[in-house]
Amino acid sequence: MREDFAKGLKAGVKFVIGTDLIGYPTHPQDQAAKEFELAVEWGMDPETAIVAGTKRGAEVLGLDHEIGTIEIGKKADLIAFVGDPIADITALQTVDFVMKDGQVVKSETMKGKKKEYAR
């Protein structure tokens, strides 16, 4: 699989990072960032990985006019991290806070309420 991924990168394939399985017992919600880490480990640069999980996903779903980038008039659920995920993709695992529908949700507040805050 790693070799196929590398071939795709070299060929210019526009990858999307995301899953519809987050929250199931086999795919804990707090492990969602592992896909980004794996993509970087397999040769994707961190910035491209983040685009694959935001802008590119919205484009593939035909929702890029509503979500996927931070622009005036678009809906935005935002995540702030402790650290710089461009310098170290594992920073995606250290969430400082989430903003959902304009409401800031501190990470301490999220504990035990993952289903409530999940999209």
From TrEMBL:
Record's superkingdom?
Answer: Bacteria
Q: Which residues form the Amidohydrolase-related domain?
A: 2-105
Q: Which GO terms describe its molecular function?
A: hydrolase activity, acting on carbon-nitrogen (but not peptide) bonds
InterPro entries to which the protein is assigned, alphabetical = Amidohydro-rel (IPR006680), Metal-dep_hydrolase_composite (IPR011059), Metallo-dep_Hydrolase (IPR051781)
Gene3D superfamilies, from UniProt? Metal-dependent hydrolases, Urease, subunit C, domain 1
SUPFAM superfamilies annotated for this entry? Answer: Composite domain of metallo-dependent hydrolases
What is the protein named? Amidohydrolase-related domain-containing protein
